[in-house]
Hints:
Blueprint: H1 6-13, H2 18-21, H3 28-50, H4 56-84, H5 92-116, H6 124-163, H7 166-189, E1 197-198, E2 201-202, H8 203-207, H9 209-221
Antiparallel strand pairs: 1-2
Helix pairs in contact: 3-4, 3-5, 4-5, 4-6, 4-9, 5-6, 6-7
Amino acid sequence: MNRKPFRERYEYDHRMPQKYEERHPRPRIEGLADLVFGLSLSLGALSLVVSPASSISEINNHILVFVLTFLILITIWINYTASMSVLPIEARLVMVLNVIMLLLVALVPFLLNAVELSNSSLTVAGNLAIRNYAGTLFTVDLFGLLLILGLFYWILEQKESKLHTPRLLRLYKNGRNLMFILAGIMLLSAAPIFSYVILGNPVRLYLWYVPIILFWLRRLTGFRF
């Protein structure tokens, strides 16, 4: 029985089909991202414990803050993981965008708590000034997150345009356009005029729900607008 030399057998065993070559170990940055998202959600829940409510309205405010934090983070995380599953993580631009995104994600629970929860040691005017400032910062934070997601879709669009896959190309274009439009709305809402109060909350607070609503409408209905 003829057997190939060891060297030839070794080289042959490592000539794997393309579908196996594409299966690479999960990059560490994705594990770090899951940790940062998880910690941000935990901090949002922890705020319910460390700042006990003194009235029914405060209980409602605490719950609303946590729900908003949860919805924003989980929506960003779903979009992020969907993009990272096909993005070339070794690309320098992708790595830089990942680092910036994780910084912005880590700031979400802190800024939202500053927006919604009052400090009893401050005057009404002082609390209002802090809420407006934190609201502006959070709006810029959300703008940055949506812009980065849009850039991820843009990178995927450039990648797919070379492979001539119309269906994926259209999907990435729609995702890119939607994220850029939402990022533009968030940037616009950072203007001082959107700090005008309606029904006890600044106008920009209602605009924060727009990305969440549109994302879950796309997710649940399958309508790719």
